[in-house]
Amino acid sequence: MEPGPAVPAYILRGHEAAIHALHFYASNALLASGDSDGWMVIWSLSSKRPVAVFKAHDGGILQIKHWTTNRLISHGRDHKLRVWQLRQEDFAGLSTKLPNDSNDTTSEAVASASTHPQPWLLHSLSVNALNFCAFSMCHQDPRQPTSEEPAPQLIASPNGLDSGGIDIFQLPSERRVSQIRSDTAGPAGMVMAVCLFHQTTGPDLRLVLISGYEDGRIAIHTHQGNLGDPDGPPGWQKLTSCDRAHTQPILSLAMLPSSSRTHFFTSGADSLISKFCLPSSLADMHAQDLQSEKCINTKHSGQQGLSVRSDGKIFATAGWDGRVRVYSCKTMKELAILKWHKVGCYSTAFAVIDPVVTHEAGGDAGNVLSTTASPASMGDGAILSTYTAAKDLTKPMNALDTIKQQREEKARRTHWLAAGGKDGKISLWDIY
């Protein structure tokens, strides 16, 4: 008897508006979601219930990332990029009333201020959000040793005046430290997706920015040395571009996790998904156009929210047809079609999978049963569990505490794939 179609392990209901941002953090103990009305919900993965609900922006939320376990960065359609402090002790002062729980006639603005207090706002930057392009971030110096203090970050987002340009900001200074202007030789339209990262080329460390545009073009720029240093090397250099990556606007762009940072994927409003390879020596790219290593025609237009799992084995897309599709990173073969949402999906996110896997005693040696999320990969101050870190481990645990800890550990080790869409619901899938 053939197995039936895959079904979600859980459905998280709470948003009234379309969900455009999802992000696992705190060693997979928490899931942050943001909708098109500006609401952010922090979900506990062990209880599948909200632990914090607040209005983060006056417009829709485009992106959510964590700086550290206790700091979240959100990018809104109100042209603001905000850094929130969300420590374990801060949750007690925040509301857990979901946006769809409101039954009164009070205006949304009044209800938000009175019943949903915001967490401490650490930083606020004015950025562009007209392009529907979410920000990208990376460490300013990846070689900097880890410490208790949050490491300085670089933020890439579209320029406010030049729709094809890109600004680079620095946190915590909140300064714009660099700018990439649009290509005057052949305008490509608005910036639709950006990816900022460091790549090691021999003894050198280069900052690389990949950008996708409205006309389907991809451009790659690189910068060597410190940004904003007047005595340093020249600014950004355009290395190469691909003028025919997609026939319609690029909707998402994601790197394949690896130490070399050589491959990335793109999806667009057309039905194409492409995989590109960056040579190990970026200097070799000046003389040639970027070519896709592999391109597949999915025959399903509008796949966005492309995300790659941290082990680099699979990636997923959110489809306008309500389907979440999972592909192999190596072969780009379609592995699964996850059908549950009746309307379009806009966002996907994977829980972090550590490359060091553990196997259950007596289990199949080739079957990965559980994984451990590396605290180092989750940022400074990472914790094994948001709800167990604050406990006094010297005190004996009763039966209820033991059950709770086991439930948290099981949720943290699950290979979650989250998907959100126009229906305001989040489907949680336990796959591969």
From TrEMBL:
Entries under SUPFAM superfamilies matching the protein: WD40 repeat-like
Classification via Pfam families: WD40
Keywords noted in UniProt: Repeat, WD repeat
PROSITE patterns xrefs: WD_REPEATS_1 (PS00678), WD_REPEATS_2 (PS50082), WD_REPEATS_REGION (PS50294)
Record's subunit section: Component of the ASTRA chromatin remodeling machinery complex.
PANTHER family reported for this sequence: GUANINE NUCLEOTIDE-BINDING PROTEIN SUBUNIT BETA-LIKE PROTEIN 1, TRANSDUCIN BETA-LIKE 3
Full protein name: ASTRA-associated protein 1
Organism this protein belongs to: Fonsecaea nubica
Lineage per the UniProt record: Eukaryota, Fungi, Dikarya, Ascomycota, Pezizomycotina
